[in-house]
Design a protein that fits this description.
about 260 residues, mainly beta, four-stranded antiparallel β-sheet, seven-stranded antiparallel β-sheet, 3 helices
Length: about 260
């Protein structure tokens, strides 16, 4: 059973990075180690995107919670994926908090997504009683493989998360926060999880501090590729890159954790 209100603040952006197209697998891995190990000052500077943005999930300052119920205004689908008989204006809050790395000051604002015992999604004829769902789906995304630019070339997914200390996560539960689902719904190309991950999802299911107090990234086989402690006092920024031009056993050529700014 989930706690009465479980929030997470996030701003997802999807970016296609054409400039990395010719790199090899080993070069990708080397870049990942460089980004993780070296505290380069350039990583802390905000600047314009160096590759075209395919989908932009950032929230403009002039939007209200009611905007997420309007198909011509919301950057997300107004239908999926949420509890039956709930509207997004009942689920989303627009908190007063500091600006994240990917937001532009005075232009964008963060959003907060909540779940509770009403967050039961109807799949087919029945409600999914085993878990709670409130998943924002970018409205211009197409499901068929290769149907849009997010499934072509080399794609980078960026997002930031920050905790709401007034409504903390119950980390004895598993939280799937960001994922890229396969077109046939057979699994995810990557998953960003926190809390105690169940064995069926690749975790141990053990409610221990080292298990539940970490963000982790999984590949399509639910193997853990990366982990970092969950912080309660700052934004945490992440990026994952998928390479559709080259086929590897591991579909994620490299991933980068972007330092807090």
């Amino acid at each position: 059973m989930c706690p009465p209100c479980v929030p997470i603040v996030r701003i997802p952006i999807l970016v296609v990075c054409r400039k990395h197209r010719d790199l090899t697998m080993w070069q990708y891995l080397w870049l990942a180690n460089l980004a993780l190990a070296l505290p380069s000052p350039y990583l802390y500077q905000r600047g314009a995107a160096e590759c075209p943005i395919v989908f932009d999930g950032r929230v403009l300052q002039n939007l209200s919670t009611n905007s997420f119920d309007l198909t011509d205004v919301s950057p997300y689908s107004t239908q999926y994926v949420k509890g039956e008989n709930l509207t997004w204006s009942q689920i989303i809050f627009l908190p007063n908090t500091t600006t994240s790395r990917f937001d532009t000051l005075g232009v964008h604002r963060s959003l907060e997504v909540t779940i509770n015992d009403q967050s039961l999604f109807r799949s087919g004829q029945g409600l999914q009683n085993g878990f709670r769902r409130a998943g924002l789906l970018l409205k211009d995304d197409k499901n068929a493989a290769g149907a849009d630019a997010a499934d072509q070339g080399v794609v980078t997914f960026h997002w930031s998360v920050r905790q709401d200390l007034s409504k903390p996560l119950n980390l004895s539960h598993e939280y799937m926060n960001v994922w890229h689902e396969k077109a046939d719904y057979s699994g995810n190309q990557f998953t960003f999880v926190g809390g105690v991950v169940l064995p069926v999802d690749g975790g141990s299911g053990i409610d221990a501090p080292e298990e539940k107090n970490a963000w982790r990234i999984q590949n399509s086989k639910n193997e853990f590729l990366f982990r970092t402690p969950i912080r309660n006092d700052a934004w945490q920024n992440f990026a994952i890159q998928l390479d559709y031009l080259n086929k590897y056993d591991n579909p994620i050529p490299f991933l980068i954790r972007i330092p807090e700014s």
